[in-house]
Amino acid sequence: MAINTIMKNKTYNVVSGEGSGGDGNSSSPPSSPRRQTSGFSQCRRRLRSKVQLQYFRKDSLAAGIFVRRNIQFLLLLFFLYFSGLMMCVGRFSEFLRHSREPIAIYKSHVLLEKLWHDIETDNSTALELSSVWQFKRRMKVQKPCPVLATRRRLGSVEVSSGPAGYLIVEANGGLNQQRSAICNAVAVAGILNAVLVIPSFGYNSVWKDPSEFRDIYDEDHFIATLEGYVKVVKELPDELISKYDHNITNIPQLRVEAWAPAKHYLGEVYPVLQEHGVIRIAPFANRLAMNVPSHIQLLRCITNYRALRFAAPITTLAQKLVNRMIVRSSMTGGKYVSVHLRFEEDMVAFSCCLYDGGDAEKSEMHSIREKGWKGKFKRKDLDFVAGRNRIDGKCPLTPLEVGMMLRGMGFGSNTSIYLASGKIYKGEQHLAPLSKMFPLLYTKESLATSDELAPFQGYSSRLAALDYTVCLFSEVFVTTHGGNFPHFLMGHRRFLFNGHAKTIRPDKRILVGLLENMTISWKDFKDDMEAMLLESDRKGMMIPRVRKFNRKNSIYTFPLPECDCLQSHDSSRVINHTLNVLDPQLEPTRGRVPVSD
After folding, report:
1. φ, ψ for residue 503 (rounded to 5)?
2. What are the DSSP calls for 181-195, one per residue?
3. Cα separation of 368 and 373, whole Å?
């Protein structure tokens, strides 16, 4: 009877799915019968299990809290220990890190002394200036600039047909930073269809030049050249400025982000210009992106290479300096080398580089840094910084290093060199080795009389304009430390010389490594320098690939291909025309010594 009952129960379980877990049709062996227990025993076991479970849960909770608190405490102890360890050994670890990183110490004067006999007695044929540049670029015949199309498009860039208002900008910085701001201002005026007021120049505490636009550039030529592209006026109309109590600072001033795209000016600046009729943007350094529509890019080209002409006092003296350099370069066919040397006192101090002046130089440079850039340089490991800067090629080249480099490249001692620079740090001492290697060494101070230079003294931008012009027409231009001056000059030379910058840009990392090698021979040094010259030649003719609205390089350094249509491919005719523009009374020619000064 009991067995039958169990079997019946099992059959029910299988059908209902509570048996083996298979489907209803699968057979399985019968399960063992359950042992019969009393209800009291079962209740006692359940009660015991609940009590044990409650105690277990309480113990687990307490243990968990205890463990978590211990872990937090241990982490806090570890953090305090690690912080103390870092405070104790930080300086030592910094020392170890510095000792592992390579640094370079200025020893070029020692190497020159070691190699001087070989340099002086080098009988190899000197490099002919007429054959320095081996790479030639075959220039395509360019179509004329789309003048009329450009003028039409400037009035249809999502703005009204008539002028939307007046644009005022302030150009700050040195000569070429101001030049960049002027070109960008014309471009922005084209974007906004605005009338441009002649840019004002902000007084810079570094350059300390109070010159205005008309003191450096020919205002009338600037306005006339841009006529039909962008309207330029010398000042605001009286009825407009009177609305602002004849005070320019009352005019709405906008702050524009650096490298702002054209759409930013159309979307954010243009509505304000329409509302007020005049706006002022300050500061204005690098406030326009390099990627702009082609017709706006052309405005930069026209401004830089056609509209910006130096004022008459500058062009007159600059022309004389160019002619005097040609006269003094008679042994090299009237061709000369120009060097932009950045070894002024403030540049040496700012670079945090050390040379051969010892503790006295360190103290002097520290004083200059504190005076010029209060609190900016407080690091105590400047010796290490100087060594790293030097090995990374960030230190200005000394006149001695420039001389060794040029002699190594093959330029003979009869090469005429024009030195474009401010006041050289300890000039007599540092220029002596360069003068020894190149006796025909000239500056604007040595070429011009004191009376001729007198009107320019105290005006750094006007003096820089003289250097710019003499360097522009040299056969070889050497840049030694970057900056706006060489970048603009390289671009201008590319524009004049059929796309070739004719510029030596030394790889200072490689050069420093060679100058640190006290076992190098003069022959090996020359081989490396000749390879460096060849690389400068190759890179000088490179034109970056510019896709539509995708320019990554500065148009002021690489003006092609956008400025191509302004270019004449007869370089001698271009140079002669430019020189005649400088001074119509003179007729200089390349490679020929003029009759008069």
Report:
1. -130, 135
2. HHHHHHHHHHHHT-E
3. 8
Alpha-carbon distance 413 to 579, whole Å? 28
* Cβ-contact 174, 484 below 8 angstroms: yes
Q: 166 with 266: CB under 8 angstroms?
A: no
Is the peptide bond preceding residue 283 cis, with omega within 30 degrees of 0? yes
Quick one: which of 166, 162, 222, 156 has its CA closest to 191? 156
Q: Whose CA is closest to 208, among 457, 526, 426?
A: 457
| CA atoms within a 13 Å half-sphere pointing along the CA-CB vector of 302 | 25
Q: What is the pTM of this model?
A: 0.78
pLDDT, tens digit (0-9, with 9 covering 90-100), for 452-505: 999 999 999 999 999 999 999 999 999 999 889 999 999 999 999 988 999 999
312 touches 195 (CB < 8 A): no
Alpha-carbon distance 372 to 27, whole Å?
99
Residue 441 φ/ψ, nearest 5 degrees: -110, 125
Which of these, 349, 339, 332, 467, lies nearest to 404 by C-alpha position?
339
Phi and psi dihedrals of 594, rounded to 5? -70, 155
User: What gap in Å lies between CA 591 and CA 337, rounded to an integer?
Assistant: 13
Phi, psi of 517 (to 5 degrees): -85, 105
H/E segment holding residue 338: strand 337-340
Distance CA 421, CA 443 (A): 8
DSSP assignment, residue 141? P
Q: Do the Cβ atoms of 353 and 390 come closer than 8 Å?
A: yes
DSSP-derived 3-state class of residue 418: strand
Q: In terms of C-beta distances under 8 Å and separation of at least 24 residues, what long-range contacts does 588-594 make, across chains too? A: 588/319, 588/322, 588/323, 588/326, 590/334, 590/473, 591/333, 591/334, 591/335, 592/326, 592/334, 593/326, 593/327, 593/330, 593/334, 594/323, 594/326, 594/327
- Give per-residue pLDDT as tens, 314-342: 999 999 999 999 999 999 999 999 999 99
Structure tokens at 225: 């050249």
User: Is 476 exposed, middle or buried, given 0-12, 13-18 or 19+ CB atoms closer than 10 A?
Assistant: buried
